[in-house]
Amino acid sequence: MKVNLKFKLLSSLLMLVFYGTISSLTAQSDPSGERRVTGTYAITNATITTSPGKLIEGATILIKDGLIQQIGTSIKLPVEAQVIPGDSLFIYPGFIDGASKAGVSKPKDPERPSDFNPSNPPDEIAGITPWRAVLDNFDSKSSHLADWRKTGFTIGQLVPEGGMIPGKAAIVVYGNNYSTNIIAQNTGLYAKFQGSRGMYPGTALGVMAKFRDLYKNAELSSQHGRLFASNVGLNRPEINKTLEALYPVLDQNIPIFFEVSDELEIRRALSLQKELGFKLVLVGVTQVEHVIEEIKESGTQVLLSLNLPDDKASKKKKEDVSEDSKERIDRVIAAYNNALTQPSILEKAGVPFGFTSSGSKSGDVMKNLRLMIENGLSEAGALSALTSNNASILGIQKFAGTLEKGKLANMVITTAPIFEENTAIKHVIADGYIFDFEIKPKKTEKDSNGTEAVSIIGEWDYTSDTPDGSGSGTMVIEQSGDSYSGKITYEDPSGGGTASSEMKDIELSGNILEFAFDVTVGGSLYQVTVKGEIEDDTITGNLNLVDAGSFPFRATKKPNQSNL
Amino acid sequence: MNKKMNRYKYIIAAFFIMGSLSARAQTPKGSVLIKNATVLTVTNGVLEETDVLVENGIIRSIGKNLSAGNAQTIDASGKYLMPGIIDAHSHVALEAVNEATSPITSEVKMADVVDPYDVGLYRALAGGVTVSHAMHGSANAIGGQNITLKHRYGTHNPADLFMQEAPRTIKFALGENPTRVHGRGNNNQPRTRMGVEAIIRNGFNDAIQYKKAWETYENAGKQKGATPVPPKYDSRLQTLVDILDGEIIIHCHSYRADEIYMLINVCREFNITKIVFSHVNEGFKVAPELAEYTMGASVFADWWAYKFEVYYSTAYNAAILTKNGVLTSINSDSGELIRHLYHEAGKAQRYGELSDEETLKLITINPAKQLGIADQVGSIEVGKQGDLVIFDTHPLSVYAIPQMTFVDGVKYFDINEDATDMRIKVSATETVEPIYLKEHDHKCMHGVDFFFTNFGRNLFDHTH
After folding, report:
1. Is the whole-model pTM more than 0.90?
2. What is the ipTM of this complex?
3. Which of B108, B231, B236 sits opposite A205 (nearest CB)?
4. Cβ of B233 under 8 Å from any chain A Cβ?
């Protein structure tokens, strides 16, 4: 069973490819056969971007046991170095994720006490758990983590899931599974404007008020503690773990990472910061242009979302609609285009920012970055937001964020300049461990041989491997007008039997199929997106669930009924 | 301390206040000369063919043949000019309305959830409304702190809408709403009208204890070498202390005469004089008491029978209250009615035969008094803020249509420049943005769907 699981992990998720499976002579016996021969690597004759905008051509980088030893054009390589020819390859500092939920799960809600009073619930039930450490609810073997590493991320600050103050963040390196990979714990307090269902605080109104009260009482409680320690004849302080967990924030030792969904939430976070005086980092920023002055004035740091809205409107048919409808569609298109320019507006305003993966899909990251660059963000700005800026926001710039002697051996190695359309990531080095990725030659959109265009119409059987086991079902796709419609079945997550959903946004470009569908689990709606490549009546790709993971997806077309 | 020292401190303090004011972003202030209008001043009769000059947001002069200076001139010959309409009970431009999870939520602030993008603000401007009182909902016996808004539509910053001069106000609610949410819904107090009274009374008594605890702490700290331990901070009780200290005006959702009289008595007991009753459908039964002990009533013209406690109602309510000396206003409580409050006021005249001036007061100076802003707005007087509406005919005519609306002398609505799409912000993905019929579909506001009893009203966000 165990062996089987490991096999699955390795084969299906493209985890690790180790150099050499025979243990070194000096090491103890290694029955797993997985220990690497050497921790010293040299990548030679590559184009190395040591920090955004700084480039050395024909250079070699030498790393040893997780640290960068040397970078330069004339380096003497030690004998134990395994050499990777880097000719025609491009090396960049490994990406750093300012706030990630990869592999992080939401802790189970505790049971409600028999005398539960929704107007005054226990903190833990109301989502106020600042004492929680994200690592207690983190699965380091999550496929999600491997997905982000495959996209170039080598370090991430993990942020907890939960209610308005879910807990403390931690920074990990996406390295080898035999290490804990923890760089730092309790690096920040995470917070958001999320009310609790059916209890206080239930809305942004209550969350704002509760936040102020918690903060002020933490100040008073800490004051009481200090008085008690240095005086006699005082009542003992009532120890409250919620308030105590806020002390590092009061002392400015750690910032609050505030998750914000729009400009109004940014303003709410800024006004709390102004009133109470904590260090603030905004997380998941999207729209920002009308609040830049306030952000600058407050000295707040920004983690921009890697997510971009879907361009639904420009696909709308504009014929046969009224003038009013046309104008309305045009406004949506303008709003979409405006959303793409937000990173460049922030850059031009001189606000340094990093990126956060929270809420976005790993598969969309490069595409979104290219869109941001097309809309005015400089390439150096984009790379800084992925590397050095995040290193300084997280306070790890001493040992991460750029390629320099003595820094952690974290890097992304690509086949072409990183933001170019057809660039592929060939290796990612995280914590000195090398992860290799298969490079598939890109197919041209239209087959020049004049062969028949790809058809998706018909009935398909699919399987998808998730950590909970493999799932399967069928999809039926039909032509409807210029577009497609379809239905997909799946095992009912609520248990028992099969459920089905309409397939939405079915799109076929070249031999790439994309679609989405909604699944209802316990009253909540989740959107699943699928993207895959079609070849000879099979689809191979990935099934994505935002903030849950990306899983291999494979479908085969059923033979046409009439031919039987 | 000598006098000189005191004066010095005063100058320093004044310097700091000036400094903080100039640091705050300025909202736009306009200059405009409106010529030859029939000016309905509300507090100083009707002035025929008169000019009104607004400079830098303030009404500078009212008279004939005024010169414009640098101001833009608008010819209003044959038209009517009245002060901007004021709505003393509204929920326009709010992202959340009810923190319906506790019978007292005096700590929550509507200022935290103002949505400057709500196109409802523009619709209100198109109905001549320049000031609205953005209120917490009626789920709790003591709800949240409201915010008085000036309709400076077009800004991205909610704080630009705040009427900084307005005093603090708070929402209270009696009767069926709080008993249904907390009593029937959560099996908590209040389950009955008696429970509502107990919640309010206990809240005030707790606040007195709270105030005392802090006073004791602060006094103890003045002793040399003392190390007093601070009490717990509680913004909920602190807000109730501020009510007891006369710093906050209560606006109380109420329908029945008995519960109105009950709260009048509770307030008298706690020496609270700043209270306005909202809705007050049975107000005509306790008009003398309302006149004597309160800041009046803010009523509907003719809206009733949407639940049991609002059956005993009359369209003569506003007139009866006015004739009994109750400071009376007519409010909308609705993103739809707010567009024609001048018609709503007209109904009070149609039934109760109030004079034009008495009727116009219902939507101008009277609500201004109830919000504590009558020294700034609510009538056309020199020195007041330039919030003005031009109507094509007398605003109490059923044919009246607002032509232009000014806030601080800045024109925010002009019927001749009224684009089809006046939204400030649109979705980047949805061409048709969803309308939420139930608030909890939108904001997960569990347990508040009881507010919505009627489909037609739902569309316009009624939360009365």
Report:
1. no
2. 0.91
3. B108
4. yes
